[in-house]
User: Fold Sulfotransferase from Oikopleura dioica.
Amino acid sequence: MSYPGSGNTWTRILLEDITGIYTGSIYRDGSLTRGGFKGEGTNPMKGQTMIVKSHFPSNQKVMHAAKAIIFVVRNPFDAIIAEYKRRRGHGHTSVVSEKVFKDKMWLGNAPRWLDGWGRLAKNVTSIAAANNLPLHVYSFEQLKENPTYEMEKVLNFLEDAIDWKPDNRYKRLKCLGELQKAATSFKREKTPPSFEYYTPEMIEIGNKAIQEVHKNLLEAGFDVFDVEEYLRSS
Assistant:
């Protein structure tokens, strides 16, 4: 479970690497299927995949069938920009002009999206508690800093929550670590934005959501991000 733009595709790649099992989705994204996600087009209720992607806990059938929840958190200001670029670029790897951050779609919807980021986190913790579902939370920033360590914690969670573990756990984690070391050599530097995409009013909404979510996650036993690093100056 995660808000759109929280590194979902990358997370699924890592999960498939360490488990050896395809990840599924309640959506049917043809571009992901063509990109190698064989579990994308499968019915999540058929049991062909172990981990199923969802952005919103609105699919009651899937939620009732869930044995546990993995929730990925990302700075909402970054997540919403990433998702908006994907929408406007019509793809997961497209490049868009900064002009889209001055149009009506952005100015009219960004405040609602920031508020929605906060509501999702509250819904996830509430659903987990109400249904007695094991919950694991980590941040995109933690995953980016140390993918192997965070995936090892996911394996620990899967073993505790649903009594599952890969036979070749050590080899998979070692291989993942080596792949990540090699990948760092090919990362491109991001070009910083030429202007602030968020208005002062948007920033106020986002900062309020960040503080509320951090408090909510702490109460649920998860300290996965630094509030000061998430907050944005107006």
Notes: Strands lie at 24-25, 52-53, 69-73, 135-139.
